[in-house]
């Protein structure tokens, strides 16, 4: 009896410790399994110089592949066979980033609740529904179907997938990445579809910006004239990407003269959360005629979430006909931004409106038919099955029309079924971006570069190019609908097929510039072109500051060196502040004598005023002026546009650039009044109130932290956050910069990869750094080893040997991947 | 006393070897074995000390030789500190080990019937 009690107790204890438990919304890992030092999380803790095995057997390889890691843990992969090269890339990437790759795919596919459960107030289920309703899995499937039609792409994607799966199959619980152990789940097999999901998730971050619903509401409330004043196209036309007036000598696609009718009603939809307009990037290339060495220099820094594990994974691929290095997206084969022996390339996001909303008229409640050109067309119903961990599966019916899915309806953020809008998004179209990167990785010159880009549709990017042979170029590449004036700014009537994207801009008419006389090309998400380009261009927002700063610096510099370029990428000059602050200070017209009598609050205002008046407009780490300005603007801007925020329907605020312009021109006085007060405010009231409020906020901030000064790095508090938002796995970093400075570093976003390539005939010299590290394992030294260099504007010289023997100086360790010997 | 020390050492060593191939709960097999075949006066404490010592020393060695401060991070996730994390780790292993070795010691060893 005693025995059975004891046996039962022991077994019960083991079972209890072998499973995870949820308390509230927190999942407690299986304590025995997780804490076991010989198999649990402790096994993820690595010594500083942890090295992998010398030899590994990998199924499917034809020949031996040499993988040499340098001191940053960047793999240099040498393969004698092309298929082996991609197996090795998949294998090695998974080895460092498996959890991240899979988690990002799960998020893109709308499957987060299958890992995380329903979440607080069903937040994860709602997130998953949103992804499904936007048709992310639909887009990825279209892309995957298209990709496997091309034998080269198919081979590359399938071998890369094999490599990932070989790695997954080799894992025991002990070897699983920490996050699997924490959240208590296991990796699934990888598929080509998942590569597609990753690319579409990138398109979602970069090419899904739109404010059509907000603009439609503005049109109804303010009228067309005011809309044109508040949201002009372009809102800043200074320094477009390509300025070539009269140089567009081609026959533009002829569209029907009648533009789509402007909508007349209000749209009561609660729009889904927007992508952040601060996601942007810089790139430029300087011609050899302007550099110290006579060789072109190419620079790129894409601004994305500063997250861990890092967004990018650096890799060097050496195989038959290819020797390329740069950064890859974990989960997609090849190099996305980088260089080879002959050329270098980089990307920034092409801010273009690639989203439209079409109002759908159903025949009746059953929603089986919708109106198109006077006929009732059948709809397609897709039942989305959302598996919820620890809960019942959720089913969500999404209706598809020829426009695309209908995300907003009576079941989702709609308004009693009055607002059925179909979603037309460029990334739903089949495309084959993998071919572009395959070819770019192997490109030898300008014409190879151009040919590679001819396969590229989405997400639209500004591709910068430079070659050892001395060419520089920039090409804005993507599949762009040819638009009539104002088309795409507002929601459209979905019952007329003529309102659709009837034609696309032919690729050879896309904006392009090669070897311009000014000796450099550049882009920073600004308006793309001069006014003589024959197509209408609009977007949610174009950048208006970084582009001008970059061009001003590049115009001024002579005998440009790599060091100059490092300085420019880390430039903290805040042009927005330089154009705004003098105006605000002038409006403030501070009366120091009167304030002095108001006690400590008055003194705080005087001090703040002096810090602002003497500020040099650089958002450097130690700057206090930068903090006071940001706090002031953050209060002033929403206070000015309170009409937009407080209205029951959704409205968009005019851009910061246009706001300042209109303020200086005194053309928006009707917006000065604050709606929530009874008095009638003037601009000076707004400026003064926001100044006093922001200074009080900073005083409070200082008091809470017991700090005497409000340094910009402390106030901004750059935070490199873990992908699953696990606080303890992220880092707070001391870093300068601000969204509209060249060093576009905000709290949670910033330069996610800084790259500088000098294309010298004697050999490429490349430098790079990103906010994180090669390993995705929080227990590795290489999880965050580049973070400090990144925060301080330092770079690593990238080792780029042609042969394994040349790696000796940089070699950390080598792993040979060997084919499994044939049985029998 | 000598018997007890041998019992502890054998349980720890056997558990270590089993854990090379089997999941964490294999420590219980080692402890049952120790309780069954190497009985002492304190069978619960033998498993408790054997597995506790094994997990404690493994955790401490890993913590001292690693460089990513993982224990500190995991402790922070669990809202405790690093020392407490090592103690909890040790106690969980020890408790399972103790109960298993005690269970093993309760098995009445009879000669198996020869006929079948």
Task: Give an overview of the whole structure.
- The complex is a heterodimer of chains A (824) and B (116).
- With 824 residues, chain A is an alpha+beta fold.
- Among the domains of chain A are: 1-35; 575-617 and 624-710.
- Helix content of chain A is 33%, strand content 19%.
- Chain A is globular, with a radius of gyration of 28 Å.
- The mean pLDDT of chain A is 94.
- With 116 residues, chain B is an all-alpha fold.
- Chain B has one domain (2-105).
- Chain B is elongated, with a radius of gyration of 16 Å.
- Chain B starts with a helix and ends in an 11-residue tail after the last helix.
- The model of chain B has no long low-confidence stretch (mean pLDDT 91).
- The A-B interface holds A 2-3, 6-7, 9-10, 13-14, 17-18, 31-33, 35-48, 173, 178, 182, 726-729, 777-781, 783 and B 16, 19-20, 23-25, 27-28, 54-55, 58-59, 62-63, 65-68, 70-71, 73-74, 76-77, 85, 88-89, 92-93, 95-96, 99-100, 102-103, 106-108.
